[in-house]
Every structure is written in C-alpha cells, then in structure tokens.
Write a structure and sequence with these properties.
872 residues; alpha+beta; Beta-Lactamase; Heat Shock Protein 90; seven-stranded mixed β-sheet; 50% helix; 17% strand
C-alpha cells in the first residue's frame, strides 16, 4: 500500500513539473521577453532622471547654505577673532539659525587659527592639517575658490557622508577658515533602494571610475571600480566609456545577457549613475499570472493527495516520537536520581580516604592501598559527574554561574589536575599562555575548567608518545550584533600527536557514549560522554568548537568562549604579563593571592585614622584585622546612625569605610547625610554587590571609591595609600616596611574538613591566619543563628526590606568564610527579594534555611574541637 501511494505521488509530481517547465519556457521565449525589456528600459531611465533631480536639488540647496555661511560678515569677523567670546556666541547663534531654518543635514565650521572642528551639537575636536586623512582641509583653504566636495566614511554608523566645503576669506582675500554641510549619501542611496525592485542594483561613480554611492559601503571605502563590480553580471559593454560620453541630461539603456542596464549623469557632482535589473520569471504578467494560479491549484491538490496517502504514516511517526521523548525523559530522570544517590557515599569514601592518607602512622602498604582506593573513587566520581551533567543538559536544567575569576588560577588549577594523567608515558606537555590574557574575566569558571579538562584528558589518553600542547589566549570579539566593548573571546587550543581520527570518527565524537578504536583503547578510562558534554557547554556559553584531526598525526581542538572583562578600581583591564605567563608555562605558578600578599608594600601609618561602618560584627573584625599592620587608629560603628553620631561629635577620619547594605539606613543614605552635614573627607563603600556599573552608582552618591567584599588586600592597600594623607604617613624608619609575616593558608588542618566550606580559600581571604579564621567561624555561627530565626517564615511585601538585609548579610559573610554555595543561594534570594518575587522565595527559602542550619551544625562541631577552642 505504501509503495503504491508513493509511486502515484511521484508520477503526479513529475507530470506537474513537466507542465510548468513547458508552459513557463514557452511563455518566456515566445511571448513577453521583448516587451518586458522595453518597459524595463523606460522605467530605469525615468528612475535615473528622477533621482538625479532629487540629488542635484539636495546638493544645490546645501551648496547655497554653505556659500551663504561663507559670505556671512559675522562669521568672517568671528573667524578673524575666534577668541572673542561674544563674537563667537553671535556667530554660533547665526549658524544655528541656518541649520534650524534651512539645512536638513549637518553643518560644520572651522577657523584656521584654533583649527577646532565644530559640527551641529557634536563634541568639537582639533584638526591636524598634516594628517593625510584631513587632505580636504588644505585643499579647501588653499586650492578652492568657491566650494569643493569630499566623501567620508563613518565606521561606527556604517554611513557615507558627502561633504560640501566652502572656504571663508577675509577682506584681503586670505583664507581664514571654512564652513560646509554634510549629506548622508547612505541615506539617499537607501531611499533609492526602497523604491526599487529587490533585484535592482544601483551605483554612483566618478570620473576616476571609483564607486561613490552604493548600498554596500565597503565598495566606497575600498574605492572599488564600477567595471569590476558589474563584471560578474555578464555586462560586456564598456560602462565608463558610454557614461563619459553622455550629455548632462541624457540617459542610455542597454540589453545585457542577464537583464537591463541604464546610465545617467549628475553634472553638479561630476558623477555618473548606473542601474542594473536582473531578468526574472516575476517579470511576466498576464500569461504567467494565469500559469501561477494553475500551479497554486495543482500544489494544493498535491498537498491534499499527499495528506491522504501519508497521514497514516505521520500518525505512526508521531506516536513513535512521543514514545522516544518519554523514554529520553525517563532516562534523564533515572540518571539524575542515580547519580545524586551514588555521589553521596562516593564523596564520603573519597573524603575519608583522603583523611587517612594524611596520617603519618600508616604503613607503606596501607598507604598504597588507600591511594588506589582514592584514585579509583575519584575516577568513578568523575564518571558519575559526567552522567549527571549529561542528564542536566538533556533536561535543560544546566545553568551557568558567571562570576569574576582569575585566569592564571584557572589555568594552573586545570593543568595541575590533568598533568598527572601522563603517568609514565613518554609524553611532553607544553603550556603556552598569552602575555595579553586579561588577569580577570567574568564567566563560569567551573565549566571552563571542565571544558579544558575534558580536552586535556582526551589528549593524554590517546597519546602514547609525543607531545600535548595547551595554548590559552584572548581575542577581541567581532560580533556585528553586539555593541558590548567589554566582551572578549577566551581562545583555547589543545594539540596532541596521538592516534588522531578519521573524518567519520570526528563526526561521531560528539555522540553520547561514543568511543572509537575500542580494541586498541579497551584499557582507556571513560564513558565516552566528555566531548558531548564539552560541545554542549560550549554551545550554552555561545562559543564555538572546531576539530582538525588526521589518523596517526594527532588532533587539534580550538574553542572560542565569549567572556566579560572584569574591572576593579585598582586593576582595570589588567593583563597577566610576561613574568606570570612564564611562571605558568614553567609550571611554577603560586596562587596569585599569595603572590599579591608577598609583593604588597604596607606603609606604617600610626597617625592615620579610619572608621569602619558595618552591621555585622564578623565584617568589622575582618576589616580591623586586615588594617592592623598599618598601625592605624581604627574605630567601628554598627549602623549608619552610629556613624552620623560620631561625626556630629566632631570626629574626623582619613577614610570612612561604609557598608552598603545595612538595616534601618543603608550606606548610600548615610553618606548622603554625611555630605549634607558638611563632612568632606573620603568615604569608601564596602559592598558585596560589585557588579558592572556599581562604581558609578557610588560615585554619584558622594562616595570616593569602593572595595568589593570579601575585601581584597591589594585594593585595600591601594585605597589606604591613596586617601590617608601624606602628613599621617610616618616618614621614619617604619616607612616602606614590606610585611613578610603573612601566613599562607595551611596545607591541611581540621578546618579543611568542614562540608560545604572551602576553608582554605576563607583562610586566604583573612590574610592566611587560621587563628583569625577560627574566630570568624564562631562569629559567623552566632550571627547566622540570629538571622536564621528571622528567616523561618515567608516574608510579606511590607517586610521584604528586612528580608533583603538578612540574606544580603548572610551572602557577604558566607562568601568571606568560603561557603560559596550558601552565599550563592543567599544572593539568589536577595535578587528575588529586590524583584518582589515572592513565588521564588516561597519555593526556595525553606531549602536554604535547612542547608544553612545543617552548615551551622557542622561548624559548631568543628569549633568544639580542642585545637580550635585554644584559638578562640
């Protein structure tokens, strides 16, 4: 039944197309061709004449305006005495009146004394006559008697302007400046195209045969010749020779193999115009209209027949598709649930094994066994993570978390994690890092590490000997749809000299569970999900991934990932530089935060004074600890009201560090009141909301700068050096002391075993002191328990301000300790509170408080340990 139906459908389709071909061909050849060509010629000639009159009228009008301005006595006096402010004001008013009353385009003026270019309301700028780009300046002043023309391209606006330049002479007939107008030629050409058939091509060109007007502005900027541009259309006549022989108001038309062409002349500009229209089946009128109606009827009949014969198959296919969708969803749900269930005991196995590996009393054979357990567990966990990521991607639940990250740390961490995969194989690893790579970017650092790790993992797996190369660089992002100048592309190249792949294997490499050369690679670890996950991650980041490979010669993978530049008040658009790039390439990189600490020069400032305003005791404690080495007099205030009371009492400080989010009266309102009360000394914002544009908000509201929380000691040091006055800096022997006593985070301790907290990162943020960190843990517990009690119930609209303060404080203090998951959840709740999204809060608050309560219990258990009790 199916074959019979398909045969009938094919026979009917072939018969129909034969009818269309014979009828359409006969109509084209025998009926309308000559008539259509004649009508086209007349239409094109009329169009050229009309557009010539329009352009000449516009140019003549602008010439008149330019000459009027050039002959103005007031403008001549102003050009002779440009420093006369009253005369300048009257001249500008006269120019403005001309622009408002007569000119539809742009008016500009420039005198030969100060050579400042003015145009309408745009920002004036200085002209350099020696710059070849400004050739028109000397040409107008010293070679032109009345006026001249020049064409200018504006790359930002993608527009071509025709400028009419008129010199201004003084009473001794000496040039003293120029005036002129600008016509947007691109707009004129676009308006011409709006009234033309889409198959029509229109150009202006000059006596040098260079295109001066076209829809594609690149033809003008490249000074493309008209003959070259029209050559592809099959025009076998000398266009320029024919055009140059035209009279001022004459037009000519020609038949060419693919259509009709017309030539015209624009005397006022000494230009020529050419228009070409392609032949098309749509040119045919009566006969073809009837034929098209028949074709439409036949197509409708085909659709009906097709649906009659194929509907049964479509129903079956639809049922199959639904079954496949249900099966895919069930698979994804199963994988997600099982992966989560397996991860919990696996994390315990790996964590306990890691603890046991640190015990010195273990026997060598015990350590060897534990090492194998750890390695196997870590491998299994990675496989589970791959399956979980795949299920998230398939269900559309994988979300990116774009945050500021340090590129050097990203590269170092990823390389150190993967380099051990070389093992004992004779494989050389090379790392190339661009010196111009930005120091900080904004993106999903975890997922970028995952992409690089997957690529390196494959390179090491399938390379038995030879080399593996990782190259990291950045490029400016060239996206015609994007105007974001703060976007770059992170370029990742991974090359290896391994097995390589055939074109078919390259096509299949992104398939799920896909592996190749199974006989040769049967001992190679992995699920075959890595490249599928990598491709999906790149796609989600709006990036691109390309693979070049050859069997026996290796593989080259290139990834482009759009990222945002991260800016701070101190390190705006910084790059890693030659020294750090070399350390990375030599695998001698230390955590950058430690390097920064070792390089900081902390000047002793015993006569300086600061006030730290924050509603959280833990933040006050950290700020005081970080500034203690400077010898400053440090006072604190736990609210904006208390800060105002201190300053009203006559207290002054070299710097007031002001928290942004505080209950009752926030930092912005407090600063406004300080300024209204006459307080003029520096106020610096402390904020956990250091997003793009936030600095401008603070500067507009009376602040002198801002530091993001957790506090970066480099930024803090720069702020203190900038605002603590020189009279307060001890110029004696303590000046210029380099603080070399900062402790690095401990390699391993009981603090590193708190689930849910990266305590090593937290210790690093408080200057490397484990003692200080343990005190902060206790303070966080006390503060968080109080706020937890306030978050047990869903807030109402009227209580949202208080709710926002609580979750903001938890976000800030949790980030300081290294509890990034809790900090991120608090940030989401803060955003929802600001947007008054009670639905999101209702769905997520309970889970957040449960996880926070669990974390506080874990911290309590660690704080009660004997070594930490001694630190408190």
């Amino acid at each position: 039944m199916r074959n019979e139906s398909m045969n009938k459908f094919i026979l009917f389709s072939v018969t129909l197309f034969l009818i269309i071909l014979v009828a359409g061909g006969a109509a084209f050849i025998f009926s309308m061709r000559q008539i259509i060509r004649t009508n086209k010629g007349n239409e094109l000639s009329q169009m050229l004449e009309i557009e010539r009159l329009k352009l000449e009228a516009a140019v003549n009008s602008e010439i008149a305006i330019a000459l009027k301005l050039a002959d103005s006595p007031l403008i001549k006096r102003y050009f002779s005495r440009p420093d006369d402010t009253e005369l300048k004001k009257m001249a500008f008013e006269e120019i403005a009146s001309y622009r408002n009353a007569f000119s539809e385009y742009m008016i500009f003026w420039i005198n030969d004394k100060d050579r400042i270019f003015y145009s309408d309301d745009n920002e004036p700028f200085l002209i350099d006559p020696k710059d070849p780009v400004n050739y028109w300046y000397n040409m107008t002043l010293h070679e032109t008697e009345v006026y001249n023309f020049n064409i200018n391209y504006n790359p930002e606006m993608q527009q071509i302007k025709l400028w009419i330049n008129a010199p201004v002479f003084n009473s001794e007939n000496e040039p003293i400046g120029m005036v002129g107008t600008g016509i947007e030629l691109t707009t004129i050409v676009n308006m011409i195209y709006q009234n033309m058939d889409e198959r029509t091509e229109f150009y202006y060109f000059n006596a040098k045969e260079e295109i001066t007007g076209a829809r594609n502005v690149d033809l003008i900027t490249e000074k493309r010749r008209i003959g070259e541009e029209l050559n592809y259309s099959g025009i076998d006549i000398d266009i320029c020779k024919e055009a140059f022989g035209l009279m001022p108001d004459e037009t000519k038309t020609f038949d060419v193999p693919l259509g009709k062409i017309a030539l015209g002349r624009v005397p006022v500009l000494e230009w020529y115009s050419v228009v070409f229209i392609h032949d098309s089946i749509h040119d045919f009128n009566t006969a073809m209209t009837a034929l098209f109606l028949v074709v439409l009827a036949l197509i409708l009949l085909i659709i009906v027949v097709f649906n009659v014969f194929i509907s049964g198959f479509l129903k079956s296919l639809q049922k199959t598709m639904k079954a496949l969708e249900h099966a895919s969803k069930a698979k994804s749900d199963f994988l997600a649930k099982m992966s989560h269930e397996i991860r919990t005991p696996m994390n315990a196995i790996i964590g306990i094994t890691e603890i046991e590996l640190t015990r010195k009393e273990n026997l060598p054979e015990t350590l060897d066994g534990l090492s194998k357990i750890y390695s196997s567990g870590y491998t299994l966990l990675n496989l589970i993570n791959d399956i979980l990521d795949l299920s998230k991607i398939e269900s559309g639940k994988l979300e990116l978390t774009p945050l500021k990250y340090e590129t050097a740390s990203l590269i170092n961490d990823t390389v150190q994690l993967n380099i051990s995969r070389i093992g004992s194989k004779p494989v050389d690893f090379t790392l190339n890092v661009s010196e111009d790579l930005p120091m900080y970017l904004i993106g999903d650092e975890l997922r970028i590490k995952q992409i690089i790790s997957n690529l390196l993992s494959n390179a090491f797996k399938y390379t038995e000997k030879g080399t593996v190369t990782l190259a990291i660089a950045s490029e400016a992002r060239h996206d015609e749809h994007s105007t974001d100048n703060a976007t770059v592309c992170l370029v990742i190249n991974v090359r290896d000299t391994g097995q390589g792949m055939t074109p078919k294997q390259v096509e299949r490499i992104f398939d799920e569970y896909s592996r190749f050369n199974m006989e040769a690679n049967r001992a190679t670890e992995g699920t075959g999900l890595g490249m599928s996950i990598t491709q999906n991650l790149v796609r989600i980041m709006n990036g691109t991934l390309t693979i070049k490979s050859e069997p026996g010669a290796g593989t080259h993978v290139t990834v482009y990932l759009p990222q945002h530049l991260a800016q701070t008040p101190i390190t705006e658009n910084a790059v890693i530089g030659k020294e750090l790039a070399e350390r990375l390439q030599n695998l001698q990189y230390f955590n950058n935060s430690q390097i920064k600490k070792l390089q900081i020069e902390r000047k002793y400032m015993p006569h300086g004074s600061v006030l730290v305003v924050d509603d959280l005791e833990i933040n006050l404690f950290v700020a005081k600890g970080l500034m203690a080495p400077y010898g400053l007099k440090i006072e604190t205030a736990k609210s904006g009201y208390e800060a105002l009371e201190k300053t009203r009492g006559g207290a002054v400080y070299d710097i007031v560090f002001m928290d942004h989010m505080m209950p009752g009266m926030d930092g912005i309102e407090t600063t406004k009141r300080l300024r209204e009360a006459g307080y003029t000394l520096p106020v610096v914002a402390l904020t956990a909301n250091a997003v793009a544009g936030q600095e401008d908000v603070f500067l507009k509201n009376g602040f002198d700068g801002f530091i993001s929380k957790p506090i970066d000691i480099v930024e803090l040091n720069a702020i203190l050096n900038k605002f603590v006055s020189e009279k307060n800096i001890d110029s004696g022997q303590n000046s210029g002391i380099i603080d070399k006593n900062i402790q690095s985070p401990p390699a391993a301790s009981s603090l590193l075993l708190i689930p849910g907290i990266d305590t090593a990162k937290g210790i690093d943020k408080v200057g490397g002191s484990e003692t200080v960190y343990s005190q902060l843990l206790a303070m966080f517990c006390e503060s968080a328990k109080e706020r937890l009690a306030q978050l047990k119930s869903i807030p109402k609209i009227e209580s949202l301000p208080s709710f926002i303060i609580h979750v903001h404080s938890l976000k800030s203090s949790a980030a300081l300790l290294g509890a990034e998951d809790i900090s991120d959840e608090a940030a989401l709740l803060e955003t929802a509170g600001t947007a008054e999204d009670l639905t999101f809060i209702n769905e997520n608050l309970s889970g957040f408080t449960d996880r926070l309560e669990k974390l506080l219990k874990e911290i309590d258990a660690v704080i009660e340990m004997p070594d930490l009790r001694n630190n408190k």
